[in-house]
Amino acid sequence: MLSENDPWIAQLVKRVDIFNGLTPHDVHRIFAKGITQVVPREQMVFKKGTTGNQMYVVLAGKMGVYDGSKQIATISVGETFGEMALVSQEPRTATVMALEDSKLFVLNEHIFQKLLTKRVAIQILLNICKMLGKKLTNANMMIREIEGR
């Protein structure tokens, strides 16, 4: 069982954007309430067009993001995906599959609504907004490059 003094928890606080502004105690409590999921290489986590209320933090391994058969992004340790499922109830915009054996931490709507303190839930949601803003900026830059501007 992990303790809040575990060096691994301290590393998560430093390396994972979604945990910015949280204490090791906060992150330990989140992990005590959440779910970890092992995903073998080439296993799909979710498919484009499906709905869900989970987001994921990559703890080990790498994930591929696909639009059809084209890989459009790679998600590595410390990064997240599926955030929009917690913010909107819209269908998934891409398919995500493990590129190698991976371990994910799953945060779902129930954890946010029932188990996290308001302070922690608000901080995580603010972090999600910042991450989505960065993703939008990067997507806009890619569009400009493609259009030759």
3D structure, described in words:
The protein is α+β, with helices and mostly antiparallel strands and 149 residues long. The protein folds into two domains: 1-33 and 117-149, no CATH class; 35-109, Jelly Rolls, CATH 2.60.120. The chain has five helices and eight strands, in the order H-H-E-E-E-E-E-E-H-E-E-H-H. The strands form two sheets. A four-stranded antiparallel sheet has the order 1-8-3-6. The chain has a four-stranded antiparallel sheet with strand order 2-7-4-5, with no helix packed on it. It is globular, with a radius of gyration of 16 Å.
Q: First CA to last CA: what distance? A: 53 Å
| CATH superfamily label of the largest domain | Jelly Rolls
Number of domains: 2
- Biggest β-sheet: strands ordered side by side in the sheet: 1-8-3-6
CATH architecture of the largest domain: Sandwich
SSE order, as H and E?
HHEEEEEEHEEHH
Observed structural traits:
single chain, 149 residues, alpha+beta, Jelly Rolls, 2 domains, four-stranded antiparallel beta sheet, 5 helices, 8 strands, 26% strand, globular
Ordered list of secondary-structure elements with their pairings:
Layout lengths: L6 H9 L8 H10 L1 E5 L4 E3 L7 E7 L2 E5 L2 E6 L4 E2 L2 H4 L7 E4 L3 E7 H7 L2 H30 L2
Antiparallel strand pairs: 1-8, 2-7, 3-6, 3-8, 4-5, 4-7
Brief overview:
The chain is of the alpha+beta class. Helices cover 40% and strands 26% of the residues.
